[in-house]
Amino acid sequence: MSVDAYRRDGILARALVNFVFFTGGFASVEGTVHQPRTFSVEQLVDIFNMKHVNTHPCRLNFSQLPEFNRAEFVRVMKVEKNGMDSLVQQLKTVLREKFKDSNECELDLDNDQYLKSMLEWSFTRITRFRELTEPQMMFLWMQPSLEQLQNTVNPNQKDSLHELVINISKLQDYNEESLKALISDITKKRDVKYNHFMKTLRLCLSGLKVGPGVIELMTVLGKDCVLRRLKRSLQLGENEVLQQKAR
C-alpha cells in the first residue's frame, strides 16, 4: 500500500510514522508497542538508537497500526491546540462523502458541538473515522429504518413510551442519572419489565438489537434526537395498529 492509500483509509500521518519506527525496531521505549503512544519527529530523533539497527529481515505487525492511530486520535484531541476542531473538520469530510448521494443523514453537518460530542464518546471505540460510518455506528447519523422499527412498540409498552416522552420533554437536567431514575419509575409504576422496555428503547433509538447501553445511547444522542426518534416510533406503532384494524 502507498502512503496515500493509508491516508485515504484514515490513518493519521504521525500514527504511521510511529508505527514504522517502533515496530521496525529503531528504538526501544518500554510499553510503546503493547500500549502505543505517539511521539513527534523531534522526539523520535532523540530516542533513535543505532544499536537497534541491523540487517535482519523485519516483518511489521500491522495489527498494531490501528492502535497507534487510536493513540494519535487521543493525543490530538487532548493535547494539540485546536486539535478537536481539526478532527471535527476531518469527520465532516468523511460524513459529507458518505451521505453525498442521499438525504438519509438526520444530522446537521454544521453542528460542530454534536460532532465534537460524538468524537469524545467514540474515541475509545474507533481507530479511524470511517468506522463511524459502519453499520453498527450509523445510528449516530441516521434514524432507524422503517424495516428496523416494524412491530417494535409492543402495545403493552405504548403508554409507558408516551409517558417517557412527556417526562423527558420536562427534564431540566438531561443526564444518565435522571434518565435512569425516570425509566425505573415508569416501568415500576406501569408494571412493565425493565429489561424488555430497554430492548424496545434500543430498537426505537438505534434499530440495533445489541450495542451501547441504552442510557448511554440516550445521553450520546441528546435530548432532541431521542424525543424525535421516540415520537416517530410511537407514530409508526399507531399506524400499524390502524392498518391491522382496517384489514
From TrEMBL:
GO biological process: glutamyl-tRNA aminoacylation
Pfam families according to UniProt: Anticodon_2
Database matches in SUPFAM superfamilies: An anticodon-binding domain of class I aminoacyl-tRNA synthetases
Gene Ontology cellular-component terms listed: mitochondrion
Molecular-function GO term, any one: tRNA binding
Keywords of the record: Aminoacyl-tRNA synthetase, ATP-binding, Ligase, Nucleotide-binding, Protein biosynthesis
Domain of life: Eukaryota
InterPro entries per UniProt: aa-tRNA-synth_I_cd-bd, aa-tRNA-synth_I_codon-bd_sub2, aa_tRNA-synth_I_cd-bd_sf, Glu_tRNA_lig_a-bdl, GluQ/Sye
Domain Aminoacyl-tRNA synthetase class I anticodon-binding, residue spans: 95-233
Record family assignment: Belongs to the class-I aminoacyl-tRNA synthetase family. Glutamate--tRNA ligase type 1 subfamily.
PANTHER family: GLUTAMATE--TRNA LIGASE, GLUTAMATE--TRNA LIGASE, MITOCHONDRIAL-RELATED
Name listed for the protein in its UniProt record: Aminoacyl-tRNA synthetase class I anticodon-binding domain-containing protein
Species the sequence originates in: Laodelphax striatellus (Small brown planthopper)
